[in-house]
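Reviewers asked in the last cycle whether our approach scales beyond single polypeptides. To address this, we selected a multi-component target totalling 874 residues and predicted its structure end to end. The input consisted of the following lines:
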Amino acid sequence: MDIITVEHLKKEFEYYRKADGLKGSMKNLFRRETLTKEAVKDISFRVKKGEILALLGPNGAGKTTTLKVLSGILFPTAGRVEIDGFIPWERKNAFKRRFSIVMGQKNQLWWDLPASDSFYLNKCIFDVDDGEYRKTVEELAELLDVKDLMNVQVRRLSLGERMKMEILASLIHRPRILFLDEPTIGLDILSQQKIRDFLRYYNEQTKTTIILTSHYMRDIEELCSRAVIINQGQLVYDGQLADLGHLMGDSKLLTLMGTRNLKKEQLAPYGRVRELAGARAVLEVPRPALKETASAILSTLPVQDFTVTDIPLEESIALMFQKEVTTV
Amino acid sequence: MEKERNQKEKKLDGYWAETKRCLRLLKVFAKVSLMSQLEYRANFAAGVAVETGWMLIKLLYVAVVYRVGADIGVLTPDHILLFVGIYTLMTGFYMLYYGNFTSISRMVREGELDLYLVKPVSLQFLITMRRLDAALLLPDFVAGVIMIALGWARAGLPVTVVSVTGFLFFTVCGALLTYSLFLLPHLLCFWIVATRGVAEMTSAVWDFNNMPQLIYGKWMQRIGTFLLPVFVITNFPGLFLMGELSPLLMAWGVAAPILFFGITRIVWKRAVRNYSSASS
Amino acid sequence: MNPYRCVFQMGIEKSLEYRANFFLSLASAVFPIIIQTFLWNYLYGNADAGAVTGYSYQQIIVYTLLASMVSKLVGAGFETQINEDIKLGGLNKYLVKPVGYCRYQFFSFLGEKLPQLAILLLVAAGLVAFSVAFLGLELSAVRILAFLAALVLALVLNFFIFYCVALLSFWLTDVNLMFGTISVVLVVVSGGIFPMDIFGEKLAAFIGLLPFSYTTQFPVNIINGKLSWMQVGSGVLCQVFWIVLFGALGFGMWKKGLKRFAAVGG
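The resulting structure, written as structure tokens, was:
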């Protein structure tokens, strides 16, 4: 059963341009030039109840705008959206009680107070009854491992702890649908993992439908089976994540630190050399061969240290487009 | 017919329930705001100090009046003290939530409004009553009450059930009117970017009440009473006490807060619609 | 381009960028004038106010018309910026540049002032013309020149006063919380609302010993003809004296403060 339906969504907005310098300021004093930008051009997709969907795309692709339209914050210029029987931008209170949105770069917690006070405020705003509220907070605090932090002022919490609190605050009213815009942005690896584990568990237990945008491929690989990719306001892919990995090229980046300067011809047999500067080199290596390549390099080349990272999402997507263009 | 009436009643019940919920929330906001302010005692003290500084200016007007000691018919320096007292008290009430008005422009610019748009409570209520600043209320409240009591006693105005009740009633009406009337200019920030000037302008208009309306010209009194009813806010309680408020004006004193609240609601809804259509 | 000229132009741009603010804040300056004019009309109409205040009706009205303009003209507003520079270490970016911080602030202050200055002076000229035409104010070219000279000195004096207040941030980290109160109190004692010498001789004498009345009350009382030429002359000398004193104070505070800034590690 589809809980979210989006059809031909389009969103435009206007902005001003200021010419440089004193002259520009003077001109602006009297007349401003208005420009229109299409943030979202024509997007359609559906989400089933209990599904976790990844919304991917480079910066400025329209991910956040799409999420804002789905939450009723913005009116679309055209198109149809239906969520759990509601049209978001009618902003019915009944609708607002069914979903929650967490934006990684905005916080709704009161900065100078312990998070528990903000939870209480949300309890009052969402009219949650006392018993249910206590139960929810206790349970979620346990799961998120923040029980001991409930009485610490938010400004004293680490970024990761704060994000856990944000997520907790957004779940006080037990929404059926959860929108997460970059929930792990800027967090350390451990916090990212904790939040991922929580979201997966929570989704399994409660069958809450989740739409997630993220920069980190790990977030998406671990949580989602399906991805929707947006580029320049247009939908370019909707399908299984497994197929996507294949499309994007299944490679990893191997960063090497040599004991002395490395040479290109030494490295070339192991993979594509992306960067080479003195003793530091970055190699692109196919994932299946990663282990053998790494050990081969360590045993034959003067390398003292290495790290493995993903190809940045933006780059993989850009890569994918290039491939598509070339194959079509 | 029957069905229609039922629906109407249901709608009214809905409004009542919503109002009750807002009042409950207001209590929570007051508590949370105070707790968060007390986290920074220096800021709290600074708030008191700034407001006391502004009060100095109000007192300066009173000092001038007493120094010169002019006295015509109905208005003695003691009456003026009473009016300045009401003005000071009203300023305190206004300052309690004023910070929310000025932060609307920031919330629009930085998109913080988004977080409140998804909450199932009146957005206008959430945005305008979120933070309550007791530090600013405190000095104005204390000084205002003292000035009112002093002016009332020295001017020899009656202390009866009717006079006290009427005075309090029009004070409450004035406080309600303040909210609507002075929220309106701040809503401009949904359309234009810079609003520091708007804030300055509105507080300048507010300062007209630093003196009782009786010292202004006839035409100005009319504008300030009916067109842009700032005088209604602080003058009506005092005028009522002096027996200078005609029945017509009394009716206006009750109607104006309701009328302007209605206007505020309409403009607010348009403003938010504009926000949702024009931003990304 | 000369760096200070560049800063000066950036200040102008900044204040034009917020066009609505600019005009509205100008308009807002008119309201207190209206309120006070009505107050004086009322007081002079119903009592022998002139005997108490020492100002003739004409003088007090001209004072009212011009005091808030002058107060706005000389008004500072950069103290929060300096406080942030010191507190958050933004000062470093000036220290590595070949510009003097005090001069930088001064020209940026002037630049931000200039569009206002032009219009405020225009308004002030209009008000003076009005006073001459309708209030029977007698004015000579020398008096206007004396007023303009006193105004320039007032602007410089006020800059240095607020510069010193702002530099307190080297020692008192939370002083920015007091800036609002300080500037309100200073506007009052400068005579920006009412002339302070109407409240009796003792207060007037006391205020005369402080530097603040030389930023607002003094220039205004030149143009409304309250001061004799003797008083104008001695007043200008006082202005110069206070400028030198606060200039030196600012210089000393900057030197000492900077040492402290470097020691604390900014």
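Chain A has two domains: 2-11+41-246, 250-327. We regard this as preliminary and will revisit it once experimental data from Aim 1 are available.
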